[in-house]
Amino acid sequence: MSDGIDDVRRVLTIAFRENESLNQLDLERFLALDMEWIAPHEAEEAVQQLVKAGWIRLEQQTATLAVELGALSAPLGWFPRPSRLLNPPHAVGVAEENRDTPLVTPPTTPKPVIAPTDELSETKSHDPRSKLTARLAKFIARSSGLDKDEVERRVARKQHAFLTITPWLAYALVGREQGMAMQDIVDALAVV
Description:
With 192 residues, this protein is mainly alpha-helical. The protein has two domains: 3-97, Orthogonal Bundle (Arc Repressor Mutant, subunit A), CATH 1.10.10; 119-188, no CATH class. Helices cover 49% and strands 6% of the residues. A hairpin with a 2-residue loop joins strand 2 (56-59) and strand 3 (62-65). The longest helix has 15 residues, at 148-162. The radius of gyration is 21 Å and the shape is elongated.
């Protein structure tokens, strides 16, 4: 399979990861502003080219996938070549080539966010800092003046937004947003 097809499949897998459809303007914003894969003035053209190549359908300014993408992962730091979005290869045969791979279907409802202090998530982690999240939560709540439930709500939002962030790092970000010195947060995370 060519790199061009893989690039387009990765872009669409990332763009539609939790959605069955996207507003055309949201898709353009995602490609140009959120991910910065193309220039803002090229975003509309890229979406139109993906439609012409058969990758997505566009009906009443709503974009949906026109092909099944199959299982695919993107290496850390990966980004597509802009030319592959502006002149994408045709989508013909993508589904047939991936017949043996399990198909990724976007969920219809968002995944529930597990509370960061959940004991189950802490016991599965091999990171010693994960055992200190309860202590860090209390420290941030006390230092910032926020209620502990509010701190945990903000941490859950961070984890939902960043997807692969560890609980202790989400707590550190919330503490930093509250104006706390990072050295204090680091000290609270110090493994004894």
